[in-house]
Amino acid sequence: MAATLIDGRAIAQDVRAQVARDVAGFTAQTGVAPGLATVLVGDDPASAVYVANKRRACAEAGIADLHRHLPASASAAEVTALLLALNEDPACHGILLQRPLPDGLDDAALSALIAPDKDVDGLTPISAGRLMQGAPGLRPCTPVGVVELLDRHHVPLEGAEVVIVGRSDLVGKPVAHLLLQRNATVTICHSRTRDLPAVCARADVLVAAVGVPRLLGADAVKPGAAVIDVGMNRLPEGLCGDVDFDAVRAVAGLLTPVPGGVGPMTIAMLLRNTLEAARLQAAR
Ligand code: NAP
User: Fold this and answer.
1) Which residue range forms the structural domain that includes residue 77?
2) Is there an atom of ligand 1 within 6 Å of 211 CB?
3) Assigned domain for 127 exists
4) Are 12 and 264 in contact (CB under 8 A)?
5) How far is CA 51 from CA 120, 144, 271, 280, in A?
6) Which of 121, 149, 210, 215 to mutate to test the pocket of ligand 1 (most atoms within 8 A of CB)?
7) Are 145 and 110 in the same domain?
8) Which residue, 152, 238, 241, 269, is most buried by CB atoms nearer than 10 A?
9) 76: nearest Cα among 115, 119, 37, 110
C-alpha cells in the first residue's frame, strides 16, 4: 500500500493559525505585541526573498515587524552594534540574523552575539548547549518542525529506532537531540557511514537531511516506516528531496513530499518561537 503523505502545508497553516490566536491572547493580556527583528545585511536576492516571507508571516500572525536592513558594506562593528542594541530593546523579543552574511563577516561569531532568550533561530552555541542538556530554551525551527510533523501523525517515538542521515548543526544534530529527549533510540549517519541503506532500513523513523537528491531509495526504508525528507535540492526539473519519492512511497507508511513537507514548517516554527521568546521575557 502506498505511504500516507504528510501534508506539511496544512499542518504549518494550522500551527500559524494557532500562533496567531495565541499572539492575540498574549497581546490582550500584556498590552505588548511580540516583536521579531529580521536582520538582513546586503542584497543577496535569495536572502531578501526568505526575509520577506518571514516578515509577511509575522504580520499575518500579529507579530510586530522590527526588520533592519544594513548595506553589504556594513562592518562587523556595525552589525555588532545593531545586534547588541536589539538585545537591549524591550520591544524586540526575537532576533533573526539572515545567513549567509556578505563575505568578510563571520556568520557564527556575529550570530553568537544574539541574547539566548531572543535567539528564535535556536542556533547559537548557548541554545545548542541548552538543547543538548535538555535545559529550557529556544529550539531550532526546522528540527522542531520535523518533530511536530511526527506528533501530528501520532508516530510513537518512545523506544522507537530513529535513524537520521546528516549531522549538521542546523538540522541533523538538533533533530537527534530532540528525538533523544523523546526517548527514541537515535542513530546518526553521515558521509562516512558504512552501508547506509542497511543502517537506514532499521529505522521506524527515518529523517533525511543530507542535500543529495534521491540518495535514499526503497532499500533504505523499513516497510511501514515514517520517512521525513528535509532535503531541498534544486534540479533543472524542479525541487526534490533526499529521498527517492516514487520508490519510497511504495514501502514507507508515512512520507513527506518535497515540496510541501518539512519546508513550510520552518516559518511556522519561527513564529511559534517568537511568541515563546516574548512569553519568556514577559515572565522575567
Ligand atoms: P549540510 O550542512 O550540508 O549537511 C549535510 C550532512 O549530510 C552532513 O552531515 C554530511 O556528512 C551528510 N552527507 C552528505 N553526503 C552524504 C552521503 N552521501 N551519505 C550520507 N551522509 C551524507 O546540510 P544541512 O544544512 O543539514 O541541510 C541538509 C538538507 O536539508 C539540504 O538539502 C538543505 O537544503 C535542506 N534543508 C531544508 C530546510 C527546510 O526548511 N526544509 C532547512 C534546512 C535545510 P558529513 O558531516 O560527513 O560531511
Assistant:
1) 31-115
2) yes
3) no
4) yes
5) 14, 20, 13, 24
6) 210
7) no
8) 241
9) 110
Q: At how many degrees (to 10) do helices 172-181 and 141-152 cross?
A: 50
* 121 catalytic residue (yes or no): yes
Query: Between helices 263-283 and 141-152, what is the axis angle to 10°?
Result: 110
Q: Tell me how far the alpha carbon of residue 48 lies from the centroid of ligand 1, in angstroms.
A: 23
CA distance 211 to 233: 6
Q: Is residue 72 in some structural domain?
A: yes
Q: Which three cell numbers stand for residue 50?
A: 526568505
Query: Would you call 54 a catalytic residue per the annotation?
Result: yes
Active site residue 103: no
Tell me which residue has its CA closest to atom 24 in ligand 1.
168
Residue with CA nearest ligand 1 atom 31: 211
- pLDDT (tens digit, 9 = 90+) per residue, 108-136? 999 999 999 999 999 999 999 999 999 99
C-alpha cell recorded at residue 251: 514501502
Report the b/e string of 158-183 with b at 16+ CB within 10 A.
Answer: eebebbbbbbeebbbbbbbbbbbebe
- Rounded distance between C-alpha atoms, residue 258 and residue 44, angstroms: 24
The Å distance, Cα 280 to ligand 1 centre, comes to: 31
Q: What is the per-residue pLDDT for 284?
A: 81
Residues 108 and 145 in one domain: no
Which pLDDT score, from 0 to 100, does residue 74 have?
A: 98
